[in-house]
Amino acid sequence: MKRIIALALVAILSVAVFAGCGSSESSSKSVDLASVMETINTNNKLSLDKVDSADKLNRYYSIEEKDVKQFAAEKDSDPDAPVEVVLVEAVDSDAAARVETALNTRYDSVLRTYTSYTPEKVSMVKGCKVTKDGNFVSLIIADNASDMLKTFQDAVK
Questions:
Q1: Is 136 exposed, middle or buried (0-12, 13-18, 19+ CB in 10 A)?
Q2: Do the domain assignments include residue 45?
Q3: What is the mean predicted confidence (pLDDT) over 121-131?
Q4: If DSSP states are collapsed to H, E and C, what string results for 107-152?
Q5: Which of 33, 104, 122, 123 has the lowest tally of Cβ within 10 angstroms?
Q6: Secondary structure class of 48 (helix, strand, coil)
């Protein structure tokens, strides 16, 4: 009788272990950031320059290619009052933290630029922020940043 109970307990625990593995895989979400960017552009009538390579992403935002699974980024060509939308999916949580740090550094730089050259827009920039949701990180600096951020967050949740 003890053997039967022991075997039943082993079988139940084996099923529980495999069930746990399956649930963690199904919780990861696949998001196409290029499509999210297209939706943001359409909804907000944006016409920005694409940051179309990992080299440019590194040059403008100091984000290393090894940290990025995918990205979609666009920025205004006006250096005095740039509008920027940067959406990144990092390869893991450590990479996401590095991307978040890099984008916060960029945000601080943009805030200083607005303060120096376009002070009437500083309150708009202060209403913008860097966000991180799992491995997804964003920087959105624009008049409609909250609407754009909602579009991004709805896609990644």
A1: buried
A2: yes
A3: 92
A4: HHHHHHHHHHHCHHHHHHHHCCEEEEECCEEEEEECCCHHHHHHHH
A5: 123
A6: coil
Q: Is residue 9 within a helix (H) or strand (E), and if so which, with residue range?
A: helix 2-26
Domains identified in the chain, total number: 1
75, amino acid identity: K
> Which residue type, as a one-letter code, is found at position 125?
V
Predicted TM-score of the model (pTM)? 0.79
Q: DSSP letter string over 33-91? A: HHHHHHHHHHHHT---EEE-SHHHHHHHH---GGGEEEEEEEE-S-SSS--EEEEEEES
16 domain-assigned: no
CA distance 95 to 105: 15
18 belongs to a structural domain: no
Q: Is the pLDDT of residue 103 over 90?
A: yes
pLDDT in tens, 23-78: 333 335 789 999 999 999 999 988 889 999 999 999 999 999 999 999 999 998 87
**Domain span at residue 110?**
30-156
Does 148 reside within a domain? yes
Quickly state the pLDDT bin for 1 (edges 50, 70, 90). low
